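> run fold CRISPR-associated endonuclease Cas1
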Amino acid sequence: MKKLLNTLFINQPDVYLSLDGDNIVLLKEQEKLGRLPLHNLESIIAFGYTGASPALMGYCAERNISIVFMTINGRFLARVIGASRGNVVLRKKQYAISENETLSARVARNFILGKVYNHKWMLERMTRDYPLRIDVPQFKEASLQLSELMMAIRECEDLDRLRGLEGQAALSYNKLLDAMILQQKEDFYFHTRSRRPPLDHVNAMLSLAYTLLANDTASALEGVGLDAYVGFLHRDRPGRVSLALDVMEELRGVFADRFVLSLINKKIVTANDFVRKENGAVLMTEDARKKFLSAWQSRKQEKMTHPYLGENIAWGLVPHVQALLLARYLRGDLDEYPPFLWK
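> ok
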């Protein structure tokens, strides 16, 4: 159980949520795990719950406290709310900004700023941790390029230019992604991004990691009442979770890419975990996907200090915190959306 930004996150599986007076009580096999006052909560997000009492749901509905139910793996199931109030205002503000490209750029630039900052941090960390195994001057040059691009991104108010700056930053970072692969070099390499289909082992793993991250982020956005399908940088397209793709930009490198690199460099995955189809597509075997998903869930449980909140939380809660911060910005509670700047 963790309280962040007036939101209660319940990570323990198989927990029953009940009401006692003005308090939420967490029960597991009739044992009381925790108790917290409800009066200053805005929402409750439960992962892997067993149920919630009608009394608790009625109490929360009357007081505009949403209850969000997720699977233990983070897939959004349902959001229980009372009469529509703030959620309508929040979505109307989201839609209004999305319709205005200048306003959209002012929000979207912080997503990209976070992405580029975190890519720069990854390059700098490589120079610190593996100076004898990489071309340090090359990494430092790319890091400097990213710093210069961040200055331009910070002032950008045009979506097309923002996409161009993001593309330049991605080029500087991607050309060094292969150098960050330190083991199994014959079987694992990165030359360029290939998506549909992935054409090598690394791209197959990146595609799966990005899909998982997009799903987690979409669930987080739905959990706070935002529309995951209406974005600011990624424009509307039927069936595409555009806002989730926006918000996850900050985590692509620092979470998804680092996760894939760790599986390769620690030899958790090998070339035997992949098959190549007749059309050239490279796919993970069923057993390899299970191993990948298990490692992904374990990584989400690892702790870190959130750079904006200063709170010690699990990595898996980061999309939820960023969704909360975005909602607060759109409501006018924050002057600016604070991107996830990992240090």
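The two ends are 25 Å apart (CA to CA).
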